[in-house]
Amino acid sequence: MAVSISFLHCGDIHLGNNQYNEPVRLEDFAKAFRQVTDYALKNKVDFVLISGDFFHKRAINAGTLEQAVELLKPLKEADIPLIAIEGNHDKAYYKDKNSWLSFLNNQKYLYLLQPSFKDGSIELLPWNNEESKGSIFDLLNVRIYGLGYLGITTATRLSEVQDYIVKDNDKYNIMLLHAGVNRLLGQDLGGVKTEIMEPFKDKIDYVALGHIHTRYDIDDWIYNPGSLECCHLDEFKYGVEKGFYHVTVKDGQKSMKYINSKYRPVCICSIKIEEKIIMEELYSVITEELKNEVKSSGFQIRVILRGKSSFSPLQLDMNDMEENLQKDFEALYVEIVNELNLPQEGSVSSVNGFKREEIEKLVFKSLLEKNTNWQDEQLDKAVDVVSKIKELVLNDSSEEELTEFLVQFGEYLISEEDEVQVPFKTEEGEKE
Ligand SMILES: [Mn+2]
Asked: What distance in angstroms lies between residue 93's CA and the mean position of ligand 1's atoms?
C-alpha cells in the first residue's frame, strides 16, 4: 500500500452547548472547534473526520447554525473535505429524517455518512454524489465507512456490516463510529467490547471513534480523541487529555500526533471541613483552598464540602456563597456540593459521600417493592432497568431504542430465568 495522506480526527464538538445558560459557553465550544479548523488550514491536511456529536442537540438555534457555517466555510473554501457521522446528540429523530447535519451535508459544507436500513437490517451503500448520501466514501486513496451512532444495537449492527466491509489493499480503510469500545462497565448504550471489533482488524486500518469524552487508544488501531471542551463538569479529571489527532500516513505507515485542545479552565475542589470550624469561618476556609488552584478569571468551579461540621449544613446559604465566590474569583460558574455530615464509607456512601444515583435507586426500589411481586435479585435488576430507562430518556433516545432496550432486557422481569445481564452504568462522568 503506497498511500500517503494526512488527516485530522476529532469528535464530540458539541456546538450549541449552552451550559449554565451562559452565552459565553456557546462561544467556548466554537472556539474549541476553531482550533481544529485553524490547524487543518495551517497544515493543509487532506481531510477532516468528525466522529459524531458535532452539535450538542438535535434542535439547535439559528445562532449555532450560523456558528457552524462560519467555522466550516474556510475549510470548504480551502477544498479540505470534512467527513462526519451523527452521534447520539445530533442524530435525527427516527421519524424526521433530517438533522441539521444533513442540512450542512446538502449545503456541501460536509459529507454526512449514514448507513441505511432495509427490512430491519443495516446496509452500507457507496456514496451517491447526485443524492449526496451514502455510507462508503472514497477520497484520494482512502475509503471511509461511516456507521454513525447505533446505540444499543451497536454490537448486532457491527456483525451485520461485516460483508459490506472488504479488504482493499490499495486503499487506506477507515471506519467512523460513534460508540465506546471497551470503556464501559458491562454493556451500555453505544458501548461494545473490544472483541466485537476483532473481525475488522484485517480490513480496517484506522477505527475513528467518538462518544467518550476523554481520549483513549486501543492497540494502535482504535482511536478516540475525546471532546475538545468539557461538556460537563463530571467529565473533568486532572491529567485527562482532550483534543484531536493529526494522522499522517506515508507509504502506508501511520504516525500519530495528538493535539491538546485549549478549553475553559475547571477546578474541582473537595474540601474536608474540620469539626472545629464554625460556620462564620467556612467561607474563608473555602477561599483559602481555592486560592491555590484558581489562578485566573473565567474558571468553572465545583466545591465539594465533606466531613463533619459542628453546625447544621441546612443553615448554610449556598446560593449566597456561590455568588460571592463567583465574584471573588471572577469565575464563570461556581457550584457547591454539600456533602457535610453524610455517612461516609457505608453501604450507600462513596468517597464523595452519597451518590445521587444510589439515592435514586433506593427510591425506585421502594416504589417497585410496593407495586410489584419482585423480590431480591429480580427486584434489584428491575431497579437497574428502571434507572437505565431514565438515563435513555434523558439522553433523548428514540422510542425505537427504548422499545428495543425493554425487549432485550425487560424479558427476565416476567420470566423466572435471569441469565441476561443488565447493562450497568459507564465509568463515572465519561459517557456521551
Ligand atoms: Mn458527545
From this structure: 17
